[in-house]
Amino acid sequence: MLDRVPPADPPHPESPGDPATIEVAGLILKAGGAPLSRPLRLSLPVGQWTAVLGPSGVGKSTLLKALAGLGPDGDLTDGRTGGLAGRVAYMAQSDGLLPWLSVADNGALGARLRGQPVDRVRLATLLQAVGLKAQAGLRPDALSGGMRQRAALVRTLMEDRPVVLMDEPFSALDPVTRLDLQDLAARTLAGRTVLMVTHDPMEALRLAHRILILHGRPARLDTPIIPPGVPPRSPTAGDLPARHAALLERLHHLAAEGGR
Fold first, then answer.
1. Would 116 be classed as within a structural domain?
2. Are 108 and 117 in contact, with CB atoms under 8 Å apart?
3. 3-class secondary structure for the chain?
4. pLDDT-derived band of residue 260, with 50, 70 and 90 as boundaries?
5. Taking residues 145-163, what's their average pLDDT?
6. Domain range enclosing 33
7. Could you tell me if 227 and 211 are in contact, meaning their C-beta atoms sit under 8 angstroms apart?
8. Counting beta carbons within 10 angstroms of the beta carbon of residue 21, is it exposed (0 to 12), middle (13 to 18) or buried (19 or more)?
9. Which of 21, 146, 167, 242 could form a Cys-Cys staple with 79, CB 3.0–4.6 A?
10. Does pLDDT of 5 surpass 70?
11. How many structural domains compose the chain?
12. Angle CA 146–151–156, to nearest 5
């Protein structure tokens, strides 16, 4: 199904407009005004994928929204400019496709809203890569849930941003398509700083340089887990199955601890 998609030009690490790190400090996640977390602090290394695991309702999506500027206030800075405005691409858990636009026009939405020319070649290549070439002219209501998620992924990958936030980006896909699109995202977002929320420990182990677990009531971040090797990793390679079992055991242990 997948064609090879060349990544957009990655941000040069020495460019003065690009973040060296993203620092989050003093961020308290809230739901309906009630605090969900202790003050959180984390550092996201430039050019790497960080995955966030944790139980439903703990605040993972709220954390992404905060980084995207859509949630609670905190001290969000990067290592050079001190701000993230205009530097973030955000893929929400819901696909957010505009119902009156075609699949292709949804994919090109960011450039159109900014008044920039659309890279039609890249758009066509991405649509082919995710298996939506034949559906490019359809509107979202004609698509299955998995197709809608693929269209939302195309829109995200079309954005040329140094920081990419993704909330369960592969959750609606069948297992084979999920593996293919994980590989596609890893290639296309090479050199970007990616923060991905997922409920799938194997997905985190495949794609992430670092894994964080958000847990407890109020929520806090566990010590980062650093899987060996270079993503994307094969699910059956080396000791990854054993690490998957250990990560599941860790998640189970933290869930049993509850609010302690």
1. no
2. no
3. CCCCCCCCCCCCCCCCCCCCEEEEEEECCEECCEECECCEEEEEECCCEEEEECCCCCCHHHHHHHHCCCCCCCEEEECCCCCCCCCEEEECCCCCCCCCCCHHHHHCHHHHHCCCCCCHHHHHHHHHHCCCHHHCCCCHHHCCHHHHHHHHHHHHHHCCCCEEEEECCCCCCCHHHHHHHHHHHHHHCCCCEEEEECCCHHHHHHHCCEEEEEECCCEEECCCECCCCCCCCCCCCCCHHHHHHHHHHHHHHHHHHCCC
4. low
5. 94
6. 21-96+161-257
7. yes
8. middle
9. 21
10. no
11. 1
12. 125
Token duo for residue 118: 């659309």
163 phi and psi, to 5 degrees?
-125, 130
Q: Specify the pTM.
A: 0.87
pLDDT at 86: 72
Cα separation, 19 vs 159, in Å, equals 17
pLDDT in tens, 83-132: 566 788 999 999 999 999 999 999 999 999 999 999 999 999 999 999 99
Q: Which amino acid is at 115?
A: G
Task: Identify whether 174 is part of a domain.
Answer: yes
Q: CB of 169 within 8 A of CB of 199? A: no
221, two tokens: 């971040």
Q: Which CATH number fits the domain that encloses residue 71? A: 3.40.50.300
Could you tell me if residue 16 is inside a domain?
A: no
Residue 245 domain flag: yes
Cα–Cα separations (whole angstroms), residue 5 to 65, 154, 186, 212, 252: 28, 11, 11, 29, 38
Tell me if 235 sits within 8 A of 202, measured CB to CB.
yes
